[in-house]
Specification:
By secondary structure, the protein is mainly alpha-helical. Helix content is about 80%, strand content about 0%. It has one domain.
Amino acid sequence: MTQEITRTLLRNKKILLWGLALTAGMFVFLGGSFVSLAHNKLEKRKLTQRSKQLDVKYEQLTKLKTQLEQEDPVLIEKIARTEYHLVKPGEIEYRFNRK
């Protein structure tokens, strides 16, 4: 059986060599394109996801801007207390260390 395979390979040596050369040529010329295509698809997926996140953030900031322009007293008080640690006269501020 091994001899039959050897004889068949020797008879079809030219066809096998041409096939191997053609396959190698395709990898040389097209291999980079396929890798680049796969990389670009992954990059597009990441950028699409990031774009959606930025759209959500933009909507939140637009809403915040509108509230600040309307001088919403509840929002202004919340920002004053959380970001600037301001207190009303007579209040005592307690701070806790968070680990």
